Structures are given as structure tokens and as C-alpha cells.
Amino acid sequence: MVNPLTLTAKEIAQQVSSGSLSALDVVELYLDRIRRLNPKINAFITVAEEQARRAAEEVDKAVKKGFRGRLLGVPIAVKDVISTKGIETTCASKILRGYVPPYDATVVKRLKAEGAIVIGKTNMDEFAMGSSTELSAYGPTRNPWSLDRVTGGSSGGSGAATSARMAPTSLGSDTGGSVRCPASFCGIVGLKPTYGVVSRYGLISYACSLEQIGPMTVDVEDCALLMEVISGRDGFDSTLIDYEFRWSYEGVKGLRIAVPKEFFSEGTDERVLESVWRVIKLLESNGAVYEEVSLPLSRYALAAYYIIAMSEASSNLARYDGIRYGMPYDPSLPWHEAFSKVRGEGFGLEVKRRIILGTFALSAGYYGRYYLKALKLRAMIRDQVLSLLKRFDVIATPTTPFPPFKLGEKIEDPLSLYMADIDTVVANLAGVPAISIPAGLVDGLPVGAQFMANYCREDVLLTVAKCVQDETHFDKLVPGVAKA
Ligand code: GLN
Asked: Which of 51, 104, 383, 440 is spaced 20 to 30 Å from 77 by Cα?
């Protein structure tokens, strides 16, 4: 009998390929888990029960005819910001309720071509704006490790679904930390790829110059497998660079780790710091070397990030006017009233706040003072990161400055919620890849260690992750609720 608590995507694909498991068996297994666990956790906005069954039957038929794929029969939970043909895609917003995309995002298409099955669409902060998955029009997702805590965000549904083994793997999107933060809070692996290596076609835009789709998995090799499948050229996304993901594990001997002191300062919970240091020391005992360094401009990263992200959001979200996209407008009203009504009723408070602030930062007279200045800082921060990465293979930091907090604890105070991203936004500003891996438990709650590497060096990040996984077996950590 298969055990979903230990089953990896790779093993599922092997078993379906050899015929010892059918794709339909696998899908039923996970649908059953979703039925039992999702009411407690609220990781899914839509469970694609019928579509998943049908897709599994197709896969089984194709296997009989000799079809083989790298993700045969593997259920994937897809963040609800990624377009899925025939499956409602809401971005956790009221404004997109009922929207069924007529096409698949490139990443989804690629996964399906390898035999993977979309099992459902996961909860998130509305339009990916948030760090706790509390800002969803469909209610918050609860952390499987402690149901009164947040999952992190904005890909909290994907984090929780994977951590509770409601799906062996999932996809998130990461504009400023949205893959890594929930990976950290839920005790799994989350990778934000280099900007321009994974197609954004079909990803509903929040801040295009910062975001990438990334894998969220329990197991490091599964993360590599998903990366292999979703990355690479696509005629529908002109920002893509030539890239071929390759990775083979050869250990961390000689790996040079930079430890920037700004990320290990007082603002960060001591227990988080201890956990990250344990990971660094463990790498050292496996042959890596580390050095404490400084990344002084990182103190401006959060401010620059939020100005850029909100500015881009204010422009990207203009399309939800009830005419092109969004809830239908009332044709009996003058157009500007109809337009305001749709946006006023359809968007949540945080989304509105960001559209207003972003519009302000871009407006004549303030553009130079805010947006342009943020862009200049972004360039300087990137240069500083790259110059460190000339001397080092990776930069190690905590993923978040604190462990998962209580639901509602920070909701009234947007600035304290934004602080959750203080360690993650640097990688998005610089465009470099970054991974979060489990660094242990603090009072029974997962915390993550983050590593950044140079452009297109996802392989180095996976090597670090694999070494830590082999030593700590973080892939065997399962939250209590998922064992029931
Ligand atoms: N928490 C950050 C924000 O709200 C990052 C979100 C994301 O990566 N999508 O902008």
C-alpha cells in the first residue's frame, strides 16, 4: 500500500510508469485527503475533482499505449493566480469570481505534457499581495502545524496543501517572497527561480518585473524535477533568457557561503537565527566554508520593493474594469460610475491601498521622488548582491524574521505584515534565484533558511538543499494534523 505521507512525486511517476499504481488511484488518494483535511485548513479555493479524474483516466490510457512522462500521474496543486484552462481562476479576489480561463499557463501546459494532473487551485492573498494568506476573499488558510497560525503568503494554500500532503507538490508565485515565506512557515522547500527562466505566460500579473513562478515541494529532488519541467524558452514570454536547467548532486565541499550581518541583526527572532546558524554550521561540517560579510544596501530593499511592486500593481490591475475583466458592470450607469462600482466592490482593502499608493508613486511630480528613486536603489542593491556573488557561491539568511504568527495578529497593521518580506525581497529586486529550506522547528513551528545564488545557479541552491535534507531528513517532518 502506498503511503502519501512519504510518497514523492518522483516515486509516483515511477510507479505509474511501471504500472504498479494507476494515475486514477493516485488522484483518488489525494482527493480523499483533501476531503478530510481541507475543511480544517482551507488550502484550496477550487478542488478540480472531475477534471482531475478525467485527466487521470487519460493518463492511464496513454500509459497503456506506451506514453511516458517525467510526472506521470503526479497531482499538482496550482496557486490560483496561474491560469488553468477550464478551471476557475480567481486570484482569491471577488472581482474574478467565476472567471474560467480559456487557456493554460505555459507552466501548466508543460506539467500536463509530462503527465501531471492539476488537482486544484490553492488559496492565496488577493492578487498575491500579502504575506499571510489572510487577505483572501475566500477566508484565510490555516497552518497545518498549528491551526491558529498563518501559513505565510502569498502562496499559503500551496504551502499548506503540500505540507499536509494534500498534494505531493505545488506551484506558487514569488514577487517578493511569496513562494519562500509560506515554504518556510509550512516546513517545506520553495524555490524562486532566476528572473526570466520560467515563463510568466498565464500568470496573472501583480508586479511583472519582480515575479516568477516557482515549485513548492517536500523533497529537494522533486523541486529539481519541477524546475526541469517548467523552465526554459517560451514564445509567449519575451523576458525569457536562454536557460537549461541541469543539476547533479556532488556535495557541498568547498562551497563558499556569505553570511551578511544585516540579516542576522536584532530585528530577527533569536530562535530563527539559531536555526539558520545550525544549517550553516551543518554545511560547514560537510566541507563548505562561510564568512561573515555585509550587504549594507539591503536596509533599503523593503522600501524600494514596495514602491516598485505597488507602482506596477497599479498599472497591472487597471484591466479589472468590468469591461475587459472582472465582475460585469452595470450598463445603466455612466461609464465611470459603473467602472468605480466594479472596482470598489470587487477589490479588497489591501489591493485598493496598493493601487492608490502605486498610482501616487507614479504620478507627475512624485515619480522622480518615489518610483525613480526606488529603481535606482534597485540597481544599486543588485550590484551589491552580484559583487558578493563574485566571491561566494551562496548568500545565507533567514527566510523570514519570525516564525509563523497567529491569525489576526498583524492584520490591522500593514507595515508589520510587510516586515515579513524583509529578507526575501532582495532576491526579487536583484533577479537572482533563492530557495527556502526547512531549518527546524521553533516551539513546534517550522522556520526556514534562505539561500541566494547567482543568475541561473539554481543548481547550487539545490545542492545546498539536498545536503541539508540528507543530514536532517526535513522531508520526513509531517504536521500532526496530516497524520490523522
Ligand atoms: N508579501 C509581498 C507583497 O505583498 C510579496 C508577495 C509576493 O511575492 N507575491 O508584495
From this structure: 440
Active site residues: 79, 154, 178
Residue 74 lies inside a defined structural domain of this protein:
yes
Q: Ligand 1 centroid to 177 CA: how many Å? A: 6
Distance of alpha carbon 289 from alpha carbon 19, whole angstroms: 45
Containing structural domain, residue 249: 4-254+458-483
Q: How far is the CA of 107 from the centre of ligand 1 (A)?
A: 20
CB of 437 within 6 A of ligand 1: the answer is: no
Rounded to whole angstroms, the Cα distance separating 94 from 423 reads 30
Q: Is the CB of 178 under 6 A from ligand 1?
A: yes
Tell me whether residue 297 is in a domain. Answer: no
Number of domains in the chain: 1
Cβ(423) – ligand 1 distance below 6 Å: no
Q: Using a 6 Å cutoff on CB, does residue 131 contact ligand 1?
A: yes
pLDDT digits (tens), the chain, 484 positions: 688 888 999 999 999 999 999 999 999 999 999 999 999 999 999 999 999 999 999 999 999 999 999 999 999 999 999 999 999 999 999 999 999 999 999 999 999 999 999 999 999 999 999 999 999 999 999 999 999 999 999 999 999 999 999 999 999 999 999 999 999 999 999 999 999 999 999 999 999 999 999 999 999 999 999 999 999 999 999 999 999 999 999 999 999 999 999 999 989 999 999 999 999 999 999 999 999 999 999 999 999 999 999 999 999 999 999 888 888 889 999 988 999 999 999 999 999 999 999 999 999 999 999 999 999 999 999 999 999 999 999 999 999 999 999 999 999 999 999 999 999 999 999 999 999 999 999 999 999 999 999 999 999 999 999 999 999 999 999 999 999 7
**Does the residue 169 lie in any domain?**
yes
| Ligand 1 atom at minimal distance to the Cα of residue 153 | 1
DSSP, res 369: I
DSSP 325: B
CA of 434 to the centre of ligand 1 (A): 15
443/445 Cα distance (integer angstroms): 6
Contact (CB, 8 A) for 71 and 9: yes
Q: What number does the ligand 1 atom closest to the CA of 309 have? A: 10
CATH number for the domain including 41?
A: 3.90.1300.10
Q: How far is the CA of 432 from the centre of ligand 1 (A)?
A: 16
Nearest to 312 by CA among 194, 428, 215, 414: 428
Ligand 1 contact via 155 beta carbon (within 6 Å): no
Rama region for 179: left / alpha / beta (φ>0; ψ in -120 to 50; rest): alpha
- Model pTM above 0.90: yes
Residue 9 lies in a domain: yes
